[in-house]
């Protein structure tokens, strides 16, 4: 009964966000404040605002959250009440971030999202990888949020207000502006899993697939892009912050794309893809132009559609096969059984991967080209070095993205022509390689409560590219198409030969986790051991010595209490004589 109530509430709340977005569409921008209090010259309180960006993000969050809630009705039945309650709270927290016109109200939604993500990632708490992934996500995002909190105070005090709409870069000193935006950027990097705080996102995959879709597509990791877009005038006023953002974004998009090229789990490939695609959005924002901001938001919207679709498709594979790992899926793909049996999932996942890869005609193609065009305009007309770096990085990332999308699609859904070679590529990884093929006759398409959201998001993954007004720079469009081919052809060649080489450095994701373990975990453990030793053998020794001294003193005094009157009188006489002698000595 409780689970049913929360399911209905979750779907209803998500639909409410869509309704609110529709009602606010076309309404004049407006701000409303409440619960204000004065602290010296500062006014601290809460405020909300409605504008085009609010409507856009509410619509995106509402649509994706509705799809996730409906999909979850059939996908998940274990601890369903707490799951739907947390997803609803998670969605409400993102909505709070979107409508906030107060840095403090935004912070509340920002932190509630972090807490909900920890609980949702660890939904299968009986699994060790789910528990460790949740703890890792919580710690790394909280580390970034420390800088975020200080950034709020620096900007608010420097500007004399904590209202977002009243932050005027011209009224803030350059040093304070740079310090405040860089501190906020630390929080953005942590929440959106950018280098060097990127490793938590792939390890969050043990959570339910609908949760992954919500986190990766429309809420938590997208909050960083939204924040910079909301405070764009403030961020773009600091050249130092924009340069740092550009460097982080370009390094992250290439790093994550290379990791995705070698990943062997469907959800892990998609996770690294999310990190890379978010970096593309940040790179567009780092240009500091309105064209760059528009391109970033356009890509955010299309990414929400096709990435939500892909994670829900991965959930179908989990639901039907039992694992989203290549090493297990390949036992089902020796005859292309998944493609033939899960036809709707195959078609919709094909659309999602095509949009992610930037295949012409799909939404991802148009939004990615908008980013390339913004970078080209900034580099060519303004002679900006950042523009050239962003242009080259996004172009190279586009080729890498096409490679891992084609690799994922071919290995999961098609029978490898060079079957023996293909099996050998995974033989050392598959603990069930010696087992008989599974009974594929038991495979069946998912129920329509799960397939309905897939179809809706698949339509969006195609149609959203035409909503923005179809204007193409044909030179850039042709160049990006060539880059897609450069990525797809090597993936096809490797698949057709049954080869899937994964360089060790890529398969181990450049050893970042091991490096972090050596740089941070090991020293912290040694420091904790030293702290225990200091507490136990130094501070504790003094405490125990004081207690022991009191015990010994009490034992000594107890020896004087014999109960013999003669002994007491003798002691008194001796004491009187001693006092008399002492008095005589002093008198002299």
TrEMBL record:
The GO molecular function terms of this record are: NADH dehydrogenase (ubiquinone) activity; NADH dehydrogenase activity
Record EC number: 1.6.5.-
Where does the sequence pass through the membrane? 53-73, 80-98, 104-125, 146-165, 171-190, 211-232, 244-264, 269-288, 308-329, 341-365, 385-403, 408-426, 446-467, 474-495, 568-587
NADH:quinone oxidoreductase/Mrp antiporter transmembrane domain segment(s): 100-384
Q: Which domain of life is it from?
A: Bacteria
Extract the coiled-coil ranges from the record.
Answer: none
- Protein localization: Endomembrane system; Membrane
Q: How does it sit in the membrane?
A: Multi-pass membrane protein
Please give the GO cellular component terms listed in this UniProt entry: endomembrane system; membrane
Q: Which keywords label this protein? A: Membrane, Oxidoreductase, Transmembrane, Transmembrane helix
Broad class of where this protein is predominantly found: membrane
Domain named NADH-Ubiquinone oxidoreductase (complex I) chain 5 N-terminal: residues: 38-79
The answer to whether UniProt assigns keyword Transmembrane helix to this entry is yes
Question: What's a Pfam family this protein contains?
Answer: Proton_antipo_N
Gene3D superfamilies hit by this protein? 1.20.5.2700
GO BP, one example? ATP synthesis coupled electron transport
Family matches, as NCBIfam families: NDH_I_L
Protein name from the UniProt record: NADH-quinone oxidoreductase subunit L
